[in-house]
Amino acid sequence: MREEKLIKATWVLPAWDREPLYQGAIFIRKERIIEVGPAQELRERYPAVPVEDLGEALIFPGLVNAHTHASMTIFRGLAEDLPLMTWLHEYIFPVESRLRSEWVYWGAKLALCEMLRSGITAVCDMYLFEPYVIRAVEEAGVRAALGEGLFDFPSPGYGPLEEGLRLTEDLLRAFAGHPRIRVMVMPHAVYTCSPETLKKAARLAERYGARLHIHLSETAEEVSQCLERYGRRPVAHLEVLGLLGENLHVAHAVELTDEEIELLARKGVSVAHCPESNLKLGSGVARVPEMLEAGVRVTLGTDGPASNNDLDLLSEMRTAALLQKGLRRDPTVLPAREILRMATEEGARALGFERCGRLEPGYEADLAVLDLTRPDLAPVHDPLALLVYSARAGAVREVMVAGQWLMREGQILTLDEEETRHWVAGIAQEIREFLGKS
Ligand SMILES: [Zn+2]
Question: Residue ranges of the Aminodeoxyfutalosine deaminase/Imidazolonepropionase-like composite domain (predicted)?
């Protein structure tokens, strides 16, 4: 590997709050960005450094998928347009009870291929058999914050809860100080985890200085169940149990009162907004403008591919923006800049990757490159608007994480896409046979 390189393109967008640079370049040493500026200037300053010219393209900070269940690609399209509980109890849970480690591994690899193609460089993943997701992540070379989903009931991944906590602890130890992988403690939700389980999870996270991730206030049903069972809404429930804090990252947060939004902001809790999953499952629309106004850190996630049905964070940005504008009959809410902030810097911070999400000196060289020779990405009046409102997954041509190219000229270098699709097709056949569908 070359220690130093200079990459240039017609456009460089250093960050959500910076002006795009025409004919820009980035000087990278090992995994870090040393300098960003006009290509001409950087070439003169570093004449001995090899230049990689990406041509008519836009270099932008790699996107952060702040909530997903990557391996659920194997369930994509399996059962559609059903009420959530029917979908879960008649399809997903029965198949998941037979889940095997190699299904998780190949499902995650397929997901990572897809995510690279939409410019995702970091991902937050919760699932079962998570060590096999970690294996896929290590092969792919992306950055990830992940953990084993913890439930009260026995899991096919680890058996009884105590084993799940032990597995999480083993992973926390094994990956302490890893440059790209962060292990998080991940109790699934307030309706699948008892107060005792949640407290155990919080204690474990505290002991290792780890982050916590949970689904929270996703549906009205979750809120009413929580009220019935514990006499308080999910946010208050977590507050009483001592989980609300800066190390807590929650997914969805659709059903929030004004007071709950204030509380999340005050406690420094971050939220992964997953608009397409919320729409598809008929859960509703999160109050993103109110959360931002109150100072909540809002990030963007795709959620699992079985409820989206893709892992395209570029289209998720567009949906997030359009949804609020339409709902409020106001085109000025959630401007493109704010959306990009959620999908880059805020996502990185929520996952604990402090030096990611911007292309600036001292930051990790995590970036993606948009092909500007496509008809759907011309002309270039405003590169940032093009990225948020016009770009789709297939338009990403290159991806770099920690100074290493993972995808170049549309070819994924670290994973074998064809082999992966082949394996997943075989798994899908097994799933259909089990469900008596073919
Ligand atoms: Zn989820």
Answer: 24-48
Q: Is the domain of 179 the same as that of 219? A: yes
* 435 secondary structure, DSSP code: T
pLDDT along the chain (438 residues), means of 10: 89 98 98 98 97 98 98 94 83 90 98 98 98 98 98 92 97 97 98 97 98 97 97 98 98 98 98 97 96 98 94 98 98 98 98 98 98 98 98 97 98 98 97 84
Do 53 and 179 lie in one domain? The reply is: no
Assess whether 39 and 51 both reside in one domain. Answer: yes
Does 67 count as an annotated binding residue?
yes
Q: Which residues face 63 on adjacent strands?
A: 120
**13 C-alpha to center of ligand 1: Å?**
30
pLDDT of residue 89: 84
Would you say 162 is a known binding-site residue?
A: no
- Look up the CATH number of the domain holding residue 256: 3.20.20.140
Alpha-carbon gap, residue 280 to 294, rounded angstroms = 27
Nearest to 353 by CA among 340, 369, 341, 366: 366
303 marked as binding residue: yes
Task: Please give the pLDDT value at position 438.
Answer: 58
Buried b (16+ CB within 10 A) or exposed e, 246-280: ebbbbbbbbbbeeebbebbbebebbbbbbbbbbeb
Determine the Cα–Cα distance for residues 434 and 438; give it in Å rounded to an integer.
Answer: 9
- Tokens representing 410 are 């549309």
* DSSP structure string for 356-376: -SS-STTSB--EEEEETTSGG
CB atoms within 10 A of CB 133: 29
Question: Is the distance from CB of 219 to CB of 233 less than 8 angstroms?
Answer: no
Neighbours of ion ligand 1 (CB under 5 A): 303
Query: In residues, how long is the chain?
Result: 438
CA distances, 193 to each of 129, 201, 249, 316, 431 (Å): 18, 10, 16, 29, 27
Residue 157 phi, psi (nearest 5): -75, -40
CA 98, 103, 108, 111 dihedral sign is negative
Range of the structural domain that residue 375 is part of = 4-61+363-409
The response to whether 89 counts as a known ligand-binding position is no
